[in-house]
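STRUCTURE:
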């Protein structure tokens, strides 16, 4: 078997996928996994819109929009916040359906069953955190926890989707160097996302009004917590950007060996370049709502692409 080639054989170290009605069952599993991934990233983008427009308290109650009504009044902030809640509800339904399909047909396939069930638990936790955030008047720590949980949920669903599409693939005997590096870059990106979320929670996004320099300096005066947070965020963005760029170059040079993993790595590199320019626009525009939404949406897609890179590389036979 050539490197990078998918083998239509039971995976080593996994239980074989169910055979009875397998094509139909796999189509259902794969459709639900892809739909759940897509809706989760849409939900993250709408969450960015809620933050960008200051609509987090457009509905003052939870799960009702207010103490006396389920449906929102026809007001700007209430409609935006309620659209976020309805998207979250649909996402819960999809993730629950995915967990049920995994429970009924894939209990002997841990790579599918475990993330599907974990996603169901995570989305319930995410919904609960959303309620706490509303009742807690959006404190930075809870805003960060809410966003971080959304990123973990997205990663788990991406892993489940990759597993659903590689049920018969033969993985390498152990993680390759490319897989390990992709995992490390994904972890670094998660740290960057967490710091970025805390910067938003602290409203520290414009503590430096220029880009790429910070008030005309490469290393600014760190006289306050917001300044330190923003400097840390930009420094991490530089480090992670270099790492993502190296991953994309590695993938390009070994694209035949790494197959779909190389594609996801190069997508991550392209998205990161776009994200850098969105970050600049965020500063130059004074944190205009479209720039905020784009920043949140594209950062989540970078994260998803990196998780997909590591997951596909782990699931498929690949070169070093």
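SEQUENCE:
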């Amino acid at each position: 078997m050539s490197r990078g080639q998918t083998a239509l054989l039971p995976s080593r170290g996994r239980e074989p996928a169910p055979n009875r009605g397998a094509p139909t069952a796999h189509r259902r599993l794969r459709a639900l996994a892809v739909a759940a991934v897509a809706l989760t990233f849409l939900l993250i983008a709408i969450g960015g819109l809620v933050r960008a427009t200051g609509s987090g308290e457009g509905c003052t109650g939870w799960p009702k929009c207010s103490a006396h009504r389920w449906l929102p009044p026809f007001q700007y902030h209430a409609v935006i916040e309620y659209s976020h809640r309805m998207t979250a509800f649909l996402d819960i339904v999809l993730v629950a359906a995915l967990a049920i399909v995994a429970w009924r047909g894939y209990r002997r396939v841990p790579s599918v069953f475990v993330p599907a069930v974990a996603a169901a638990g995570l989305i319930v936790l995410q919904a609960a955190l959303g309620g706490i955030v509303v009742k807690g008047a959006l404190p930075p720590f809870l805003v960060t926890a809410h966003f971080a949980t959304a990123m973990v949920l997205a990663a788990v669903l991406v892993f489940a989707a990759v597993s659903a599409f590689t049920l018969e693939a033969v993985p390498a005997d152990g993680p390759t160097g490319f897989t390990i590096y992709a995992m490390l870059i994904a972890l670094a990106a998660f740290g960057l996302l967490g710091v970025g979320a805390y910067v938003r929670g602290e409203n520290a996004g414009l503590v430096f009004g220029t880009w790429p320099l910070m008030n005309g300096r490469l290393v600014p005066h760190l006289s306050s917590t917001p300044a330190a947070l923003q400097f840390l965020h930009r420094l991490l963005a530089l480090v992670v950007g270099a790492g993502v760029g190296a991953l994309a170059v590695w993938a390009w040079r070994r694209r035949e060996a790494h197959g779909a993993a190389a594609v996801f790595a190069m997508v991550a590199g392209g998205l990161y370049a776009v994200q850098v320019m969105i970050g600049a626009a965020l500063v130059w525009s004074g944190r205009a709502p479209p720039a905020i939404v784009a920043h949140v949406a594209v950062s989540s897609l970078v994260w998803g692409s990196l998780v997909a890179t590591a997951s596909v590389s782990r699931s498929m036979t690949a070169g070093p």
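REMARK: The radius of gyration is 21 Å.
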